[in-house]
Amino acid sequence: MVAQRVQALAEAGLSYLPSQYIQPPELRPDRLRHMEAAVESGSFPVLDLDPSMNPVSHLRHLCSEWGAFHVVNHGVPSRVLNEMKEVGLRFFHLPTEDKLQYACDPGSAATEGYGSRMLSKEEGVLDWRDYFDHHTLPETRRNPSRWPDFPENYRDVVLEYSNNMKFLAQRLLSMISESLNLPHLFIEDTIGEVYQNITISYYSPCPQPELALGLQSHSDMGAITFLIQDDVGGLEILKDGEWVLAKPLSDAIIVILGDQTEILTNGKYKSAIHRAIVNAHRARISIATFYDPAKTRKISPALQLVTEESPLKYREVLYGDYVSSWYGKGPEGKRNIDSLLIQQ
User: Fold this and answer.
1) Which of 125, 169, 202, 235 has the fewest CB atoms lying closer than 10 Å?
2) What is the model's pTM?
3) pLDDT tens-digit profile of 254-284?
4) Residue 198 and residue 190: Cα distance in Å, rounded?
5) Distance CA 170, CA 219 (A)
6) Distance (Å, rounded) from C-alpha 80 to C-alpha 198?
7) Please, what's the b/e burial string for 327-336 (b: 16 or more CB within 10 A of its CB; e: otherwise)?
8) What's the chain's Rg over C-alpha atoms?
């Protein structure tokens, strides 16, 4: 049975939030605090990749203190960013019966296609979100026939976007390696054959946004994530116990470090806990590109970063096991990486 889509619920004109989307009180967004944060400026950091700006030094600080930041002068054309948002939005504006032609397998977790529920477990509060997930790398996973063919340039846009995100990931991971005095290909070589997924998320207007989340609090399981969003905004990053709104910045790309990068750096760099909030009046679209190891790769801290002053922090993990655990139980508002901590 196909699960009810959030967009269809919203378009039905509900004046109340269905119970399966109501977050427990301790996880609900603080609407007053969010409104105050929305008028602040400059609180979410920006990394300028222009070489004249000495980006490696600033990158080192942002990776250790934030784990998430905007990047500008990143080399991805504005046209590519705008076309990706446009085709995603046009897909979600299609009639429901057209979108359902591309529905995910409801019996499996995180399969390619159009869906609402990403985890394999049935219990738990649902996110107020619909999505379309594309398998884009390695090229042997690519099957554009599983992607929408409307608008007519949809598949070409996704492919061009995928290639641009691959090049940006290689550039950033090289800089991250160098910032730790590791060989510039260290992280890339450790990850091995890269698995890239591109997920378009659509957050419909929510009748009671103070009770719901578009995406619950979590850290990403892979190496690095790139996210673009429209002018509505809604991404929040947890910093020093407070939620910081990542206000939309024209043509910027948000970088979010994943758990495997924290493991590889022996905790010197942090994977960022983040979530998506929703609102009552405007739909929002965001596009996340996940850059992850193959499931057969074993990930452990770089030996060069393990010293007497910085002892081994994490146990080695087979990435496939890590993924299975994440999709089996979900983040539950926590960092799954904490299960790998070595007690000192």
Assistant:
1) 125
2) 0.94
3) 999 999 999 999 999 999 999 999 999 999 9
4) 22
5) 21
6) 14
7) beebbeeebb
8) 19
